[in-house]
Amino acid sequence: MSSDAPDSFEPGAGIAAEIRNARIEDEMEQSYIDYAMSVIAGRALPDVRDGLKPVHRRILYAMHQAGVTSNSSHRKSSSIVGETMGDYHPHGDSAIYDTLARMAQDFSMRYPLVDGQGNFGSVDGDPPAAMRYTEARMSPIAEELLADIDKDTVDFQSNYDDRKQEPIVLPSSFPNLLVNGSSGIAVGMSTNIPPHNLGEVIDATVELIEDPDATVADLMEHVKGPDFPTGANIVGRNAVHKAYKTGRGRVRVRADYTVEEEEGRIIINELPYQENKARLIERIADDVNAGKIEGIRDIRDESDRDGIRVVIELKRGAIAEVVKNQLLDNHLESTFGVINLALVDGQPRVLTLKETLQHYLDHRRDVVRRRSEYELSEAEDRAHILEGRLKALDNIDDVVETIRNSESRDDAKAALRGEVVVEVDGEPLQAFDFSEDQANHIVSMQLGSLTSMEAAEIEDEYEDVQATIERLETILGDADELDAVIESELLDIKEEYADERRTSFVANTGEVTRADLIPEEDVVVVVSEDDYIKRMPVSRFRAQHRGGKGIIGTDLKEGDRVSSVFVANTHDDLLCFTNHGQVYQLKTYQVPEMSRTARGKSAVNLLDFDEGEEITAVVNCDDLEEVEGYLTMVTQKGYIKRTSMDRFQNILSTGIIATKLDDGDQLVDVEVTHGAHDLVIGTEQGMSIRFDEDEVRAMGRSARGVRGIKLTGDDLVAGVAAIDEDHHSWILTVTDNGYGKRTDLDKYRPQSRNGKGLIDIKTNERNGPVCAINTVGEGDHLVVMSDDGQIVRTPVEDISTVGRNTMGVIVMDLDAGDSVASVDVIPPAMTTEDEELDDEAVSDADESGALDDGEVVDVDDSDEADEADE
């Protein structure tokens, strides 16, 4: 009896040669890492390119291979699960069916990828029916993920038993990772990507194609935030901004509800994403029974196929707002923790919004390039065959004679290729040089294809194929053309499948905020060049006759000067524009309230200014999201532009760009317009020009604008005013030395943009250069502040009404070396009808060298007399 065992043991011989020493901790560590990477790459995390995990991808591909498309009939879910499990995904059938069912749930997927028939579960947490009872097929939008997969657009790999090939990734005609989101728990990491609106995501992708340097903030002008299939509301925007910029964030989602105080009930219409409705009602009932929530007498679930409706009946005498706040604190809000983690080149990475779209675009460019190469090869092969057919038709008699006199089909093909010579009666027939493919096709041609009509069709097809080849070569040779194809296909998908947003944004009103503790009042806000800021009630400044010295408005430190003063309500949203072309958003109540003699607090914690940056214009907006119209901006060097207000809804704490500036230029003024105003630009040397707002087309935030006024010499723009003839009667001009005037609107005749304009006011040694230009109406008050901190409030009717090209009258009596720093207008709504003027602070206009109300010098209102009139 023989044996494989050696006669004597020798170290390193036989089986012992396969044994190696290893540290147990090293082996465990490596094995765990291998397992973790298998879970991360093969099960739990989606691919950034198509937004799918392997199980989703395999289900869709199995349905594609089986022909279970949106145009076919539904097929039993058990059949789809069986084919997926047998051919591509060797895991449990329950895991595959759970995935299939979720892709069919319109409350889980923003755009379901499976069209289900039967019970696929509910928002109450009910499980789907058994797979033998339900049926499914691909939804139309799912087919867009697989479009052109048969054109060598993606790489394939062997399935688990090497019998079939499966795609590593799908072509994905739209950014599915963001559109439908994803969630999963891997080893040591997890992903939780919210769904988004298809139209918004495609618009952002197109923006990135057109402007590769677009920032996350630019893309967020299109992607407003997550768009959950269950609707509801996102509380605030800061968390969304953080999630898009860092890849992580915690978004508060609030149920949509209505409070019907007269009926004494609260109705819940939409729930936060992934909220179990039955469990929510149960938790509310438990809190009511435990006395944690008071004032509720009944809860009814009246939901149906048309939507959610949970009715909460209140007890008689219960305060609806109180009950609502209790529900918000405990039940009607949830937090969605955004973790934008996906596989990039097989490695898990946390991605920003731009990075996510950029990786998708890189994938899509590769898909379109490979598809174009495939189609080009097909078109060239077809063109080659058509060339052979056309050549055969041109020599049809000789071709037919050659084929007829060949002994076999193979001999005929060889003769057409020119490899043998066919003779008839000892005479050789015409020799041909067709290729093998052409010869095979000609021999297989039917006699019916020899008609003249058939020949014309071949010529037409050949021209079409040549055009296709030319187009495909252009796409492959020009990156811009390739991007244009991607953009066009994305916009086609948007037109086909995009819908309205379901999720809205609401302010954080679920709890008592700082704003709730601050009374509404009108205030004066003062900002200095050294960035000291404060607010004071307008009521502290009684109106004075013009020409007064005013009173102290702020105590400046040595070397500091006032840079801006404006009037607002404590609850106003303020857009603060700076000379550097930046815009910041600020709530008025965030500015500390202080006395007139206080210096103010440093604005570093409110507005993140750069060195040398200061506020030059402020726009009040009660609610930025509801404002319609444009922000019209002018620069020192005469450029003007309009930008839609909706471009300024998502302003960062560090500010955003409001306008592009040339070197040495500064933003000097901003006005809110509504598309139907005339604009007046005033310059420091007293020139002005009036033209229609429509002459300035609407532009983006990063645009520089167009020329508004042609400046001469070293003149600079002082400001811009928008004319609303329903509310404004005069143009008010104020100069550095404290002089000003009112002039009727009709004295400023409309001209074309980019002219030299007309003389508005004389800027001699007495007046000094123009400081501000405004439009005013009856009842308006003027707030003027000097560099040294003096402030005066004056009714505009106290300032003389005179023509253009005049000296004006004194508005504020300034000390030597002082000058006007800033001017703002208080509308009639902020003034009181019975307010008496404070005569004690009035200085005599005559003593200051000013003109009396009726006195005007150097007046010449005629256009002919204007030395700069065009």
Would you mind describing this structure in some detail?
The protein is α+β, with helices and mostly antiparallel strands. It has 4 domains: 52-171, Topoisomerase II, domain 5 (Alpha-Beta Complex); 256-331, Gyrase A, domain 2 (2-Layer Sandwich), CATH 3.30.1360; 367-497, Topoisomerase, domain 3 (Orthogonal Bundle), CATH 1.10.268; 520-833, Neuraminidase, CATH 2.120.10. It has 17 helices and 43 strands. The strands form 13 sheets. The chain has a 4-stranded mixed sheet with strand order 14-9-8-19. A hairpin with a 3-residue loop joins strand 40 and strand 41. It is globular.
CATH superfamily of the largest domain: DNA gyrase/topoisomerase IV, subunit A, C-terminal
Q: Could you tell me the mean pLDDT?
A: 85
How many distinct folded domains? 4
Q: Total helix count? A: 17
Beta-strand portion reads: 15-25%
The assembly state of the depicted protein chains is single chain
Q: Give the CATH architecture of the largest domain.
A: 6 Propeller
The number of E-state strands comes to: 43
Low-confidence stretches: 839-870
Strand order of the largest sheet: 14-9-8-19
